[in-house]
Amino acid sequence: MADYGIRRYRLREAMLSRGLRDGFTLDGGALETAERGYIVLPALDSSQPDCAWGRLSLSCRLGPEGMLTIRAFASNQNAVVRNNEAVSVDRFLLDPEVSRQEKERLFLLADGLEHSGAKDVLLTDQTGRYLWLWLEVTGGGRLENLRVYVPGDNFFRTLPQVYQMDNDFLQRYLSIFSTMYQELQEEIDRIPDLLNVDTAPEPLLPVLAFWLGLETDMALFEAAELRRLLKAAPELLARKGTKWAVLEAVKLLTEAPVYLVERNLLPPDADSGGALYGETPYDFTVMLASHLDEKLRLRLKYLIDQFKPARSRYQLVFLEECGGLDAFTYLDLNGRMLQNVPGSLDEGQGLTGTAYLR
């Protein structure tokens, strides 16, 4: 038998969508059923005659009364005779008009295997260029992360030939450790995805932020916002303590216009607006053209505190679309309007120039 290299087939959404499904719903690369469902998959083509298929592995969560049944057979031929006519096996198995009994009979005649209650199945007795799979769940469950290995047991193949002959028990025993090794290797292969901001799982995002020296709180930030923050973090941290860093950090959480006024850049004779712009040269004000949102305010303060200059103080002001004066509104002694703007009284009379209220 030819010695082929280790290969792994991942049955993703594109492959699963081509299969014949009954009772299963497709959720990305996962199959889910509330009660009973089965799927017959099109052939996996190894492109090698007499290929020694190794192992089928998957992750499953079954209901309390759930049961998983796996059927498989391999062959070098991709055709069967039906009604005195040669048809491809894929066409036969994926045709909803062909009865279930006829398809089960094909798996039986092809000397296929059938396992129930196992999520990791050896395919070592199946040889052929093509491999067909039939997965069935009763009692409800979810199947995902389907993988087929060729060959499946790398440890057994390293033994001298004399130990590989007619030694089914040793092969199955070593396959336990071979499976553990392959799963560990898969975890190692996934490290680049874990360190990629776009593909890292949500629970890992705060860890990546911590490595960069950022404080985060999943209760305040959504996963998409954390990913944007992590992507912008290198440049933000390089310019930490600058006006640019504060403004860019705020823009990560809102699309509303943002203005930043530094107290020490105001002209000496300019009106400071009272306490609006602060009292010391180290004060600044961040103004956001948006309605007041308490959760957004907390998140913005959380970020501004990390990127503002040391020992500086700031105010966060939400600018409403318009201001309103209700009844019983008073101006202090010698109050004045900072700008001369047209106005009107209730009777519709014009009011221009400087107004003095007494």
Poorly predicted runs: 353-358
Radius of gyration: 34 Å
Which percent range describes the beta-strand content?
A: 25-35%
Give the N-terminus to C-terminus distance in angstroms. Answer: 105 Å
Q: Sheet bearing the most strands, described?
A: 6 strands, antiparallel
Task: Give me the number of helical elements.
Answer: 11
Secondary-structure element order, N to C: EHEEEEEEEEEHHEEEEHHHHHHHEEHEEE
> Into which percent range does the helicity of residues fall?
25-40%
Shape: elongated
Describe what you observe in this structure.
The chain has 358 residues and is α+β, with helices and mostly antiparallel strands. It contains eleven helices and 19 strands. It has helices spanning 13-18, 89-93, 100-109, 154-157, 161-164, 168-189, 191-195, 205-211, 223-238, 243-251, 294-307; strands at residues 7-11, 20-22, 25-27, 30-33, 36-40, 44-45, 55-62, 67-75, 79-82, 85-88, 113-116, 120-122, 130-138, 141-150, 258-262, 283-288, 313-318, 343-344, 350-351. The strands form five sheets. Strands 1, 3, 4, 7, 12 and 14 form a six-stranded antiparallel sheet that branches. Strand 16, helix 11 and strand 17 (313-318) form a beta-alpha-beta unit.
